[in-house]
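Checklist before submission:
- one chain only
- standard amino acids only
- sequence pasted in full

Submission:
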Amino acid sequence: MSTTLLQLSDPHISEDPGTVARLRRVLEIPSSRRPDAIIVTGDVADNGRAGEYRAFGEAMAGGQPWIAIPGNHDHPDTLREVLGQQRCPALDVGPVRVIGLDVTVPGADHGLLDEETVRSAEAAAAGAGHVVLALHQPPVPIGHAYVDAIMLRNPEALTALVQRIPGVRAILSGHVHTPLAASLSGVPVRGAPGIVSALTLAPDPPEMRGDCPPGMALHHITEDGDVTTTFHPGF
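Returned file contents:
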């Protein structure tokens, strides 16, 4: 029996009620496609304020189990305090353990995987079967000049972590507000589209459009660890 993870990214919840409305749209999934858990890969809040996280938590209440990791727009300590998350939150979903990685750098838009997070992730993976790692900034370039300058700065550290953790089946990321399919050392890298807006092809100046449907990704993981990803607009 397969496990289904709903990946959401970049809701950028703010005082604008439209941001919560866009989040609610991607949570309205037909029962036939209902996921087993939800993974939110960063930029939960637009300004890192406690009220923004409370609004996010209210929208998520009563649904599937979920974890959220911070992005460059978040205040990691406030996120963890208000939403009850750990530095490396872990969630067991059937035979799959999802582990979140905090790769934020204070005051910067790029990501960095530090030794403390590596050690926490290794500890969280102990005894797991299939493992999915989730972070905000992608570890691979996508060919867009603006976002490639603010990706994960040390993808080799993530590669080394994957090599030390048995059974890593996928790496999930957000940040770039567009669907992403790539690989890192043979492991699938999947990025969810943005909820608040979508990245256009224009690199200079970059353009994010909010007049399009919010997006999501569904990851289906078989008992053998094979991963199939589909991307969808909000219903």
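Reviewer check: The chain has a mean pLDDT of 94.
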